[in-house]
Amino acid sequence: MIRTKLSLAHDEYEVLVGTDLIDRAGELIAEAGHFGNRAALVTDSNVDGLYAAPIGESLEKSGIEVVKIVVQAGEPSKSMECVTDICRQMLQAGLDRKSFLVALGGGVIGDLAGFAAAIFQRGIPCVQIPTTVVSLVDSSVGGKTGVNTPEGKNLVGSFHQPKLVIADVSTLQSLPDRGYFEGYAEIIKHAAIRDARLLEIIEKMDPENRENLAEMIARNVGIKARVVEEDERETTGTRALLNFGHTIGHGIEAAGGYGKYFHGEAISLGLAAASRLSVKKSGLAESDADRIIAALKQFHLPTVLDAEVKTVTILEKMTRDKKFEDGKIRFVLLREIGDAFVSDEVSLSDIEAEIEALRG
Known about the structure:
alpha/beta; seven-stranded mixed β-sheet; 14 helices; 13 strands; about 20% strand
């Protein structure tokens, strides 16, 4: 088991990365402390039948009473209505501010249940147990929680750091191919913004081999952890670097109706566009942009935008995004692989042209 600690201004916690940690969840939670003896276990309809029972049993063996709450799998559940329903089920089960919440699932569950924990009785502790590549390497770490609205992605939410993250890479074996590969968009993003050596490792990987991933997952967790430590609430600009590819990516995801593209697939398209923009705007070598795009293709991620997702809709969704401040675009570019920065030199017309270029 690989332990990565996050030390923040007012909090600290560990991310535990390893295999077969699900069966030890109760023990690991008890070891971490901070928790009461009653918990809500929030998961989705896909993950419920895979991992909820062993985690529930492990918690109960550690003397923790479990109230299971299951939501429908998929991005549409990431809504205020669903948060309200989770909180009401917790209240009806008699949970209170001395209880805690376990978020078991991918990025949707992590964001949704984490937000419920942030607002339930003004905030209770949360344990994140991610089960997808995206959630293991990115969304379970750093405390961003929230839900979508028709206007855009993650526009209602809160910073609420977990007290513990249990990242069991064994869960990746159960993912369907599409759900597995989408997570590599975030891994490739981490390489692009902070770790050129990681891109070399990715390029040598066999995409079909899901064995021995703990070290690579932990390396990504370390990248995310160090960025979050430097800029927990995205006030200095460092954490904004994690948005490389996300300005356009989130616009594409929202324009597709949170269904046409998985999150990682939309981010893949955003990474391709941001890499090409970096060639034009910040001197990234064209060969480096080609390497990033080739890595996306290596993991079966899209780099060509479907014609039915309209540019005008993408731009409309984009301009509501949190990465716009006072109407100004904060766009992440690369000088070279491993060296990212936030630029105010990218215009809407630049972005529009790059979206059109994505259509091939």
